[in-house]
Amino acid sequence: MLKIGSGAGAPPFIVMDVIAAANARQAALAPGAPHVIRMEVGQPGTGAPAGAVAAAAAALRSGDPLGYTEAFGRRALRERIAAHYRAWYGLAVTPERVAVTVGASGGFPLAFLAAFDPGDRIALTSPFYPPYVNILTALGMRPVVLEAGPETRFQPSVAMLERLDPPPDGLIVASPCNPAGTMLHPDELAAVAAWCDRNGVRLISDEIYHGLNYDSPIATAASLSGSAVVVNSFSKYFSMTGWRIGWLVLPEDLVRPVERLAQNLFISAPHISQVAAEAAFDCHEELAANVARYRRSRDHLLRALPEAGFTRLSPAEGAFYLFADIADRSNDSTAFCARMLAEAGVAVTPGVDFDHARGARFLRFSYCGPEVDMRAAAARLKAWR
Ligand SMILES: Cc1ncc(COP(=O)(O)O)c(C=O)c1O
Questions:
Q1: CB of residue 314 inside a 6 A radius of ligand 1
Q2: Which of 218, 232, 317, 342 is positioned for an S-S bond with 183, CB 3.0–4.6 A?
Q3: Which pTM does this prediction carry?
Q4: Cα–ligand 1 centroid distance for 207 (angstroms)
Q5: Tell me: the pLDDT tens digits for 77-130?
Q6: How far is the CA of 325 from the centre of ligand 1 (A)?
Q7: How far is the CA of 104 from the centre of ligand 1 (A)?
Q8: pLDDT tens, residue by residue, 3-55
């Protein structure tokens, strides 16, 4: 009998199963029946901004062989990313500290392998983005899950971290976060980063939803700690999910270790996507229109969902998610979501993916789809109630 590795036991990413169920439901609909409204997916309904597409098309026509790039990416893109930190955060980051990756997803194993050893304890709060736990586990690292609730807007606090004895080897934070759509405000992130520095804890800050913040300003961990690793991506604000392109901002001590890992694991991120990503930095006007649309959908849903019986919603501070506590309606969010899909034609994600202990009483609405659909979903759910 051939051996199968422990990584083969990685759990599924359940939202992918929900997407498949919504696709199947849509395919089975009679012609002319109202379409399934997609609120389960966490990806913008828009494509890459026009300037990024034009740059990619020009590169394809140019005769450039578009071969491998250096492991950390094209110099020009790394310089654009460094300039982005000056423009958005007033922070000087050298291009040498920027690693272009295969999405944020490609950044996680690089960061985890460079910063931690198998057996290390990495803290994070639940609810969490499922791949954090699944990747750590596949790499033999031990996630330490801290339950967070509405008191801390589902985010970690220094008080929560102080209770960890001994302190963990690492801490993962995300702000704005998935699934709760809440933020660590700049002073809170600063306090968490300072706690990490005091306790020798490596901070990994997932900043993929920066730019999609509606009420509070954002801070980057790169300006708050000299040892933090920042993970970011072109998938959300830049609306380029399928281009599979992201980046890390690395502390000096991890630059060369991550480069060696990147050379071996990925060689480079897709060249054509790097060209497009460079141009995306010139498309802020188009991207701001997307953000304005998310904000309008958010504002509408915050008014309309309570009328549809979803009265306990997380503060929707950022990203494009609303996390609803449905304990007053069901204690089985998977069955509840399946019924919502079958009866109201609205696909949403049950909380079980994000919180193994409490997820059965939560669900996540994603409002990055077309505005007209988001309004129609609220109306359907009100009628379905
Ligand atoms: C919090 C968070 N981090 C990372 C990712 C992965 O993004 P990417 O497409 O850049 O791999 C996602 C995707 O939904 C996410 O929600």
A1: no
A2: 317
A3: 0.96
A4: 9
A5: 999 999 999 999 999 999 999 999 999 999 999 999 999 999 999 999 999 999
A6: 23
A7: 6
A8: 888 777 777 777 788 889 999 999 999 888 899 999 998 999 899 999 999 99
